[in-house]
Amino acid sequence: NSKVIQTPRYLVKGQGQKAKMRCIPEKGHPVVFWYQQNKNNEFKFLINFQNQEVLQQIDMTEKRFSAECPSNSPCSLEIQSSEAGDSALYLCASSLAQSNTEVFFGKGTRLTVV
Amino acid sequence: GEQVEQLPSSLIVQEGASVLINCSYTDSASVYFPWYKQEPGKRLQFIIDIRSNMERKQTQRLTLLFDKKTKHLSLHITATQPGDSAIYFCSASIMNYNQGKLIFGQGTKLSIKP
Q1: Does A97 sit within 8 Å of B102, measured CB to CB?
Q2: Segment 66-95 of chain A within 8 Å of chain B by CB
Q3: CA A6 – CA A57 distance, rounded (Å)
Q4: How crowded is residue A103: how many other Cβ atoms within 10 Å of its Cβ?
Q5: What proportions of chain A, in percent to the nearest 5, are helix, strand and coil?
């Protein structure tokens, strides 16, 4: 059973506000992914880390998001200035390797921007 | 970049029936194909995967077929049960450095009628 823990489960923010969510990856997993799942169930990859280092991120994440995975602390994803279009389910996942191996997901943080 | 197409978008069947979900991808560099099940309020649950050096994988009531030439996968679920009702996602991953992200299909909403 996956033990990727995401908090909070629900987050409501006004437009322009910061929105921060956290993720504790499965124990021993050095690789962490963040995805955004919109109301149409479309997934968008946002960023991934190996230990504390960013491996890859999309342009939107680089410009509007702040993400980190410090050692001995939860990983975090923060939207600097929330927009209505950011309303979505944010999924954190972890794995033992960057690719070609099982990826375990958390339950997600559902962000609503009002 | 990689694109994953999944059909059908929804299926409604009687309990006990078999179902087939199809998935196609575009990038021949994709080598790993995990499938996930998502129920409301629950985490994305890994159900089966296949690698590009295989043609078939079976676990209990799931059979996953892979055709590298046509870039096509199909998931067969037999003896469906009400607990199988969920959204099913196929995904693809390229095994290159920094390319471990998963690209997801649009999902197939499966509803099992008791």
Answers
A1: no
A2: 91, 93, 95
A3: 20
A4: 28
A5: 10, 50, 40
The chain B residue lying nearest A46, using CA atoms, is: B101
Q: Identify all chain A residues contacting B32, using CB atoms and an 8 Å cutoff.
A: 99-101
Assess contact for A111 and A20: CB atoms under 8 A: no
8 Å CB contact of B43 and A107: yes
Say what percent of chain A tops pLDDT 70. Answer: 98
Q: Name B91's bridge partners.
A: B104
What string of H, E and C letters represents the secondary structure of B49-97?
Answer: EEECCCCEEEECCEEEEEECCCCEEEEEECCCCHHHCEEEEEEEEECCC
CA A57 from centroid of its chain's CA atoms:
11
Which residues in chain B are closer than 8 Å to A42, comparing Cβ atoms? Answer: 104, 106
Residue pLDDT, tens place only, B60-77: 999 999 999 999 999 999
Chains A, B: CB contacts within 8 A come to 68
- Per-residue model confidence (pLDDT) at position B28: 86
Report yes or no: A33 at the B interface, CB cutoff 8 Å. yes
Is the predicted pLDDT of residue A2 greater than 90, yes or no? no
Residues contacting B12, CB < 8 A, separation 6+: B111, B113
How are strands ordered across the β-sheet holding B56-59?
B4-7, B19-25, B72-77, B62-67, B56-59
- Closest residue to B107, CB basis, from A41, A55, A95: A41
The rounded distance, in Å, linking the Cα atoms of B57 and B42 is 25
